[in-house]
């Protein structure tokens, strides 16, 4: 693995992001229902979307939202989505992506970052807990809301 770096999502990288592969069963955890509902309320100007490159290869996509005016508190500073290519998982790519979101949150003056996920043994909960997120509640759809205070 060469040095990981971030670039903004662009026309040059979007196709590779759309072609990131998943491990069997991971498709069930791509986006909780509440994300789909909230997406209509998100101001595109507050979205932070980045592609993780290893050399010139797209290995992950990460998206966050930083909007003090979001109607739900947990959408004011939230790790919206993280997709790491199946072949790249377990190599620190996800950790790099989450740490990048945390750095951006600090730069924007956020007190913490939320993440929302489906509670399931096969889901991403254990990864987020290893990263320092702690469950603090549930969405109206029963998904876990976790927070990492900065």
TrEMBL record:
Superkingdom in the source lineage: Bacteria
Pfam family for this entry, one: Acetyltransf_1
Signal sequence residues: none
CDD domains per record: NAT_SF
Domain (N-acetyltransferase) ranges: 4-150
InterPro entries in UniProt: Acyl_CoA_acyltransferase (IPR016181), GNAT_dom (IPR000182)
Protein name: GNAT family N-acetyltransferase
Phylogenetic lineage: Bacteria, Bacillati, Actinomycetota, Actinomycetes, Micrococcales
């Amino acid at each position: 693995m060469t040095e990981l770096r971030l670039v903004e999502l662009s026309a040059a990288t979007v196709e590779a992001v759309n072609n990131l592969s998943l491990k069997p069963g991971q498709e069930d955890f791509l986006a909780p229902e509440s994300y789909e509902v909230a997406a209509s309320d998100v101001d595109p100007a507050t979205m932070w979307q980045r592609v993780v490159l290893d050399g010139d290869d797209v290995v992950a996509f990460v998206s966050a939202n930083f909007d003090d005016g979001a109607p739900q508190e947990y959408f004011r500073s939230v790790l919206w989505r993280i997709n790491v290519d199946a072949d790249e998982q377990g190599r620190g790519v996800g950790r790099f992506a989450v740490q990048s979101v945390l750095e951006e949150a600090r730069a924007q003056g956020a007190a913490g970052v939320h993440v929302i996920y489906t509670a399931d043994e096969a889901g991403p909960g254990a990864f987020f807990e290893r990263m320092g997120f702690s469950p603090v509640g549930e969405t109206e759809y029963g998904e876990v809301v976790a927070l990492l205070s900065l």
